[in-house]
Amino acid sequence: MAAVILRCDAEVLRRWNYRAVVEQVAGSGIFLDRWRADSCPGVDPGSEAWLVVEGSTEASSGLIGHGFVTSQPYRIAAPADPGPAHWFFWVAWDSLLPLGEQVRPGLLGEALTDDLASRADGPSLVTLPPSSVPVLRRLWRAHAPSTADPLEVAGGTFPPETLRTVRVNRYERDPDGRRACIAFHGTQCAACGFSFESAYGVAGVGAIDVHHLVPPEILDGAYQLDPIADLVPLCHNCHAMAHTATPPLTVGELRSIMSAAGHLKGEVVTEVALQAQEDARRILDGGRM
């Protein structure tokens, strides 16, 4: 998956009402913005994005945000503009530093190659080579706002003997994977369609589990997580039900169970879908198709 640096000037932050946007991201975990490019950008939904602001001084410049591309690029021609049409794509910013706390250009330059550092001061979009992505992630983690993992269990008042452990593998707890999964798939449960935001309003924004589709017991040491293909959003109920079996129930199996129980009104699980789920089950169980 591609990763990019998106460069902007202070005017973009003023247009956002940046202080309010930082508070919004801290509270809800996301800020959606449409990004403009002069030519067709080589980005896809799920591409990781870092925001670099170019100020009038070094103190007002630097790496200030992180997010994910959430749409394919599309082209729009302005009615009053005789020039070429601009390209646009949507970005979900999930972490933003307050003005004055950005990673300064000097540190950013040390993390990137000389060529990338110079390009990051030029075009509004710079595609990062795979080798630079882990370096930039480490730099961002060292300076990014600290946030609580939404999957962490809050302390309660029940005595230890009354607690039951729900096993969640480490890929489901990876914060970067979670953000990429939600940026691409959204926060609606892939099995039952439940949306915490629709049900609870602002209080439910971003409240969703992510489920790892590949059972950890069949993974080897060379496995690398693809958050778009390997993770899927599930509500707490469907996630708990998925983990009642070993290997976990697939999304299709969950939907089949709910459909048989009459809880997916208007939904029909076709024979083709059922056959695909059966084939997947045989593969997971070590059988042959």
Produce the secondary structure layout:
Layout (H helix, E strand, L loop, with lengths): L2 E7 H7 L1 H11 L2 E7 L10 E7 L7 E8 L4 E3 L9 E11 L8 H7 L2 H7 L4 E4 L4 H11 L26 H4 L1 H11 L10 H5 L8 E4 L14 H4 E4 L1 H7 L8 H10 L10 H14 L5
Parallel strand pairs: 1-3
Antiparallel strand pairs: 1-7, 2-6, 3-4, 4-6, 5-6, 8-9
Structure explained in plain terms:
The protein is elongated, with a radius of gyration of 22 Å. The protein folds into two domains: 3-143, ph1033 like fold (Roll); 160-284, no CATH class. Helix 1 crosses helix 2. Strands 1, 2, 3, 4, 5, 6 and 7 form a seven-stranded mixed β-sheet that branches. A two-stranded antiparallel ribbon has the order 8-9. The two termini are 30 Å apart. The longest helix has 14 residues, at 271-284. The chain has twelve helices and nine strands. With 289 residues, it is of the alpha+beta class. This is 5-methylcytosine-specific restriction protein A.
Please describe the biggest sheet, giving its number of strands, its sense, and whether it closes into a barrel: 7 strands, mixed
Mean pLDDT: 75
CATH architecture of the largest domain: Roll
- Evaluate the radius of gyration: 22 Å
SSE string, helices as H and strands as E: EHHEEEEEHHEHHHHEHEHHH
Q: What class do helices, strands and sheet pairing give?
A: alpha+beta
Q: In DSSP terms, counting alpha (H) and pi (I) runs of 4 or more, how many helices? A: 12
Give the CATH class of the largest domain. Alpha Beta
Described by the principal axes of the CA atoms, the overall outline is elongated
Low-confidence stretches: 115-122, 147-168
What CATH calls the topology of the largest domain is: ph1033 like fold
Number of strands: 9
Estimated helix fraction: 25-40%
Report the portion of residues in β strands.
Answer: 15-25%
Ends apart, CA distance between termini: 30 Å
